[in-house]
Amino acid sequence: MKNIIVANWKMNQDFATISSWINDFFYKICDDKNFPEIAICPPYLYLDMLSKVINKNNKNSLISLGSQDISFSQSGAYTGDISAKMLKDFSCKYAIIGHSERRQFHCETNDILEKKLKMTIAEDIVPIFCIGESLKDRQEKTYVDFLKSQIKSVIPKDIYLESLVLAYEPIWSIGTDTTPKISAIKEVADLVCSELLNYKNIKNFKIIYGGSVKSSNSKEILSIKNINGLLVGSASLNYKEFFKIIS
Ligand code: PEP
Asked: From the alpha carbon of 96, which atom of ligand 1 is closest?
């Protein structure tokens, strides 16, 4: 199974910095089939710019585009939202759903996330569904139940999904320069894997890790059994650092 490395730019970058990121990155990345799959999730406004560059330079379909969110509705009076169909117009293959920052700052509940997940199916977008416990859950050792409930509350048992990327992102690790021990990531990867194997209608899934990933720790994290990729936030903003991670 090919690993996937997802770049989540969050609300960072602008026209000038993206232009130079693209130039430098595409110059470095030749169509080497040994690279993992790469998905870039820029702010919505830059999807168009990136989709044009990717369509032009991406002979082996190594690089895909993803969104950082998706509307729970198909269309209508939802000011500020972007629908699955609109994302498809800009060749988005992936959509991040349930990032802890969306849950925290936009009050996204598991009910809303279930609707968002269903929206991805309508347009054949692969969901990158994020789960992750707080420091309190980790310290009080309630994280196993918490993570299981995040999966069960958002993914209905009878859902049909051709592909799913499940991102384990402990909240206490995001942007903090602190990563869990390798054994702790492995424990969750194994747990998530056995939970997802209960879903007979999910045809393919990958489990990826996110939270303070850098070139200095990426290799070790990728060596964990059942981890099939990484979700990279701040380290993906610097093309050199991101290139080291994918290499
Ligand atoms: C993220 O928020 O998805 C993330 C992984 O951030 P960082 O790499 O900056 O911790």
From this structure: 3
